[in-house]
């Protein structure tokens, strides 16, 4: 059985209402996105909160030496 995000679930509150309450109570929203989809400003306008883009790392090729201690990633 599939339930819509707008339909009431077992708790009596729809998932859409729950999401709206969560966003309303936050100071900022972290948005999973990619470099091809620049939607941070659009989402910021829609929800009225600062948007922190999180997502994939740059696809540029790393030209440094390979290490296993993590220092290479810091310099990248």
UniProtKB/TrEMBL annotation:
It comes from the Eukaryota. This is Uncharacterized protein.
């Amino acid at each position: 059985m599939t339930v819509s995000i707008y339909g009431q679930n077992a708790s009596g509150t729809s998932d859409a209402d729950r999401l709206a309450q969560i966003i309303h109570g936050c100071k900022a929203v972290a948005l999973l996105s990619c470099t091809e989809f620049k939607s941070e400003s659009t989402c910021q306008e829609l929800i009225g909160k600062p948007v922190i883009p999180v997502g994939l790392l740059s696809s540029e090729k790393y030209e440094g030496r390979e290490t296993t201690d993590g220092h290479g990633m810091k310099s990248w």
